[in-house]
Design goal:
alpha+beta, 270 residues, 6-stranded mixed beta sheet, 8 helices, 16% strand
Length: 270
Amino acid sequence: MNAAELIAAAWPWLLGVGGLLALFLLWLLVPLTALWCLPVPVVHKLRASACFVGALARAALPKLFGLSAYLVVPLLVRRLSWSAESLARLDGVYGNNWGVNGDKRLWIDPEGTGAGIPLPVSLLDTPEARALCYWCPGEHPRSAKARRAWLTRNRCTNLSLQLGKPWPTGPKQAWGDIDTEKSRPGWVLFEQGGLYHLHGCLALGGRVLRISFGYKLGKLRDRTFPRVPPTIVPASLPRRGDPEAAAAQDLFLSAEAKAEIAAIVRHVGA
């Protein structure tokens, strides 16, 4: 086969790869375009853009491994005992910071601080235990099916945390609506210690166009995360959340959490 024939044979593949790359770049342009359209000071737009590039580099490996999770996780889960709390192998890559049995737990608060301590999922197969399994309704959280669903829904969380950054200290500031979420469309840009997190939700009927880009600061530090992970969701279309359920969650915030939210320095406009 001469060079011309080789190029002719490879041309469809090159076009396909080029097309996928172009779509990926367009996908990444969504949060950057949104950022530069928001009423945020230009200096913070520049810093946030640079921060997003770093977050994208750190998130690349978890994203790549995440593609293989659909094949690898079922094999890993199959070998687990009913009492297992984490993956026996490759937990640092395919595991989750909550373990293999999900994040819906019963909590105790022995010191009365309002923070609470999550309990392990019950070993007993009861209706109460099955009711915790919102990600795989009808299953016990310890079942192989529920574990597969949990670890493929939240792919490579532990790897993402390892590639994250130490939690920043100092004041957190925000532009926009800090309560933005799937049940409350809006936008917000958080900054703390030089790290930025853009979160936006645009209502589209029963769904929202959601953006989450940068480092997952949020309005509250997630204390189940030992480090702040990169979050790379240029655009997704999840179902719109329930405003009443979100409001009910806020009622049960601890005094520490409420103080953390109150301390956020909020800006209006650029």
